[in-house]
């Protein structure tokens, strides 16, 4: 009996952590959209933000049903993620996207950890969330690789020298 209660509490703690990561994702996508130099990424980030909100709402419902706490704002870890993203803007779009890639990888690991210990009724929701986060991670990886192959990779646009002849 005590073991089962301990496992339930551990799963709830992991769900709360996952919920915090999804909440952080929403804020990180908003910040990234404000600081990316290339507007072509905005539509994708907007879609990722909608997905993160939907997943967060599903997780909030589950955490609430299990008697857990719903975070009201960014915690210390979320603030550190925010600072990391703001510092990344100094390195250009590829650094911002790399920061988002790191967050997606961290979120994917959290989904896997919860999924390993969660009861069967939560598995479909967690599997769907894990698949979406993996797709998001793959998109960030591809975007970073594409940017790394360009000239002036990682250099903020205001530091790129003008073309010769101007």
Q: How would you spell out the order of helices and strands?
A: HHHHH
> What would CATH call the class?
Mainly Alpha
Low-confidence stretches: 160-166
Percent range of helical residues: over 70%
Q: What about the largest sheet?
A: none
Task: Report the principal-axis shape.
Answer: elongated
**Distance between termini?**
77 Å
The CATH architecture assignment turns out to be Up-down Bundle
Gyration radius over CA: 18 Å
CATH superfamily: Ferritin, core subunit, four-helix bundle
Helical/strand content category: mainly alpha
Q: Into how many domains do the coordinates divide?
A: 1
Care to count the β-strands? 0
Number of separate helices: 5
CATH topology name, in short, is Ferritin
Residues in β-strands, percent: under 5%
Mean pLDDT score, rounded?
84
Note down, in words, how this protein is organized.
There is one protein chain. By secondary structure, this protein is mostly helical. It has a single domain (2-155), classed as Ferritin. 73% of the residues lie in helices and 0% in strands. It is elongated. Residues 160-166 have low confidence and may be disordered.
SSE order and pairing:
Elements: H1 2-35, H2 42-65, H3 76-88, H4 93-117, H5 123-148
Helix pairs in contact: 1-2, 1-3, 1-4, 2-5, 3-4, 4-5
Offer a concise description of the structure:
The chain has five helices and no strands. By secondary structure, it is mostly helical. The protein has one domain (2-155): Ferritin, CATH 1.20.1260.
């Amino acid at each position: 009996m005590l073991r089962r209660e301990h496992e339930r509490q551990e799963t709830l703690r992991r769900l709360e952590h996952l919920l915090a990561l999804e909440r952080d994702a929403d804020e990180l996508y908003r910040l990234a959209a404000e600081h990316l130099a290339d507007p072509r990424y905005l539509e994708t980030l907007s879609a990722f933000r909608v997905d993160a909100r939907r997943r967060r709402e599903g997780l909030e419902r589950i955490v609430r049903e299990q008697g857990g706490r719903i975070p009201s704002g960014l915690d210390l870890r979320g603030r550190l993620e925010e600072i990391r993203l703001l510092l990344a803007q100094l390195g250009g779009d590829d650094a911002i996207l790399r920061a988002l890639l790191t967050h997606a990888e961290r979120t994917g690991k959290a989904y896997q950890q919860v999924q390993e210990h969660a009861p069967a009724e939560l598995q479909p929701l967690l599997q769907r969330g894990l698949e979406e986060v993996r797709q998001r991670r793959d998109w960030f990886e591809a975007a970073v690789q594409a940017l790394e192959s360009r000239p002036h990779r990682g250099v903020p646009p205001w530091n790129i020298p003008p073309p010769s002849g101007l």
